[in-house]
Amino acid sequence: MEIHNLKVSTPVSLEAYSTTPEEDHSKKALKKKLRKERKALGKMQNTLYAHNKYSVLVCIQGMDTSGKDSLIREVFKDFNVRGVISHSFKKPSEEELQHDFLWRHYKALPARGKYAVFNRSHYENVLISRVKPQIVLNENSPHITQLSDITPEFWQQRLQQINNFEETIHQNGCIIFKFFLHISKDEQKNRLLRRLNKPSKNWKFSPEDLKDRELWDEYTHCYEDAISVTSKAHAPWYIIPSDSKHYARWLVAKTIKERMESYTDIQNPSLPDELQEQLSYYKKQLKVS
Questions:
Q1: 270 pLDDT above the threshold of 90
Q2: Fewer Cβ in 10 A, N or C end of the chain?
Q3: C-alpha distances in angstroms, 278 versus 163, 269, 270, 274?
């Protein structure tokens, strides 16, 4: 799979994208491939931390059961814990509702030298909020007092605000990855059934999952619009075939690694000349101490 084939550069129709691997891979082979990419990413993250000029934001989106949690766990397993943090955005708090919809996401952005992984992200504000627009009424916005105020123009404005947000953080050194974990409706059904059939997974199931499943087409439309409008050269979307979790994890790790390799200026900093000249002296001191 070539990474450029995953990147969105034209308006999207998700039914044109496969949810399955384009070639056969055993789970064992995919785990091995992932370990290789993951190890390389871990080393690159240490260099990013030492370089301390860029940050990296990784947004993971997908339908329920698309494998977001386990992908984050497996892809970033070899990272130094000081250099990466994961955020899962749930229902906004009372404090968050007193600010614009991007405020809580801005607060969670990574510092220079670090990664932040958004498990669901600012895009929920043009996905679940668009499918269930009554959520927007809770934001207490000055010009939104009833559902009829939430027009198609409102959503296009909000998508443009997201574009502006991402352009601003990119211009200030944030490298942005956005992944849509693309699963089929049949695969979602199978995964929901596994949650019901396996006692250790029962806790993951909610009746709301079935209600959201009935809204599959609406969510698909919202994803297509959001991805089409906001996939930019500096903040691209990647559509990841995810009916195979092992395949999806490998592709995400591979995509991050290959793009990060293009930032050739990210290097370990050099010691000042005066300190470099004294290294032999310091070594001698240690040997006799």
A1: no
A2: C
A3: 49, 17, 14, 7
